[in-house]
Amino acid sequence: MTTILSFLVVIGIIIFVHELGHFLAAKLSGVRVEEFSLGFPPRMFSKTIGETKYQLCWIPLGGYVRMSGMLDEGFDEKYDPDDPRGFVAQTLIRKLFIITAGVLMNILLGFMIYSGIIWHVGVSELSGTTVTLVSSDYPAAAAGIQEGDKIFEINGEPVETWQELTAAIRPRAGLPTIMRWQRGDSTMSVEITPATVPEMNMNTLETDTIGKIGILGSIVTEPAGPFSSMKYGALEVWWVLKLSGKSIYALITGKAKLKQVLGPIGIAQASGETVRSGFVSFMSFIALISVSIGFLNILPIPMLDGGHLVFILVEAVIHRRIPDKLKVNLMKIGLAGLLLLITVVSYNDIVRLFSD
User: Fold this and answer.
1) Are 290 and 14 in contact (CB under 8 A)?
2) Cα(48)–Cα(32) distance, integer angstroms
3) Whole-prediction pTM value?
4) What is the pLDDT of residues 63-74, one digit of tens each?
5) pLDDT at 94
6) Is the dihedral of CA 264, 64, 234, 313 positive or negative?
7) 259-275 burial string, b = 16+ CB within 10 Å, else e?
8) If I label 86, which of 14, 29, 140, 236 is the partner at 20 to 30 A Cα–Cα?
């Protein structure tokens, strides 16, 4: 039950924020909004306020804002292209604003959550070179390194920060390495061979081998003010966007496998795990999924915001409208592709679930 409820909270917040972006942008641009829907039919309940029907539907895998004069998920070609309050009659800038507003809201949500978390908990980093934890399964323990030891030299090169220490050890997987450290008033030295450990390279999304000796340093948390928190929040968003882009590239080039992608079931399972880990972990997960879904939505795939964006830009270049029949066919192909993708990743989620 916790998993289901947490999933509904995560996906509900993200969908609502996304569609709210489209809704507000349309209203600000003077476009008539006919429907604001969270979820896909069948309808749970609806209420019409003014010119807009607001509804909640049973299938919580998306939502939509139906505007006058726009060919959308309903594939309805019956609209008045000359309606001054219709989408098609708007300027290029307004169309771009309306279409991208959902993605921008998802990114903004992620930025606000990340910034709020950093403002609340501060910025944590490893400080100095004093060992605070030694893993019994790695070479450091066998070499006699203990908690409280302060490492100051690797292969004759001084190290003053944990980053320098890590940078010196990582490339030496399987290579004998001379390490010197301070224990109380004594200086100690040993030849140690870092273990070879596979690790995902976040720049290439390929698995590299690195050297590890099994130690952890002192973690220091510094408070962050509002402006500093926003800076770190923006960096977190940029990291997620960059990782999303590299992940898509890796899937296209075959460097990553589709079975690694989380589907609805996988996201639900992760939602339950993070909510049990605490409020900060849960909110961080919402920020991650919000930014990731925002990125996916702007990809140039018919049925997604990126597909509509391509239609708008092509029409601006050729100075005429793309035939609605062609748009509908492309959108149907896009829908079929998305449904196939959801089916495949959901199957992989189920296989993972029962193999754990």
Assistant:
1) yes
2) 13
3) 0.83
4) 889 998 887 655
5) 95
6) positive
7) eeebbebbbbbbbbebb
8) 14
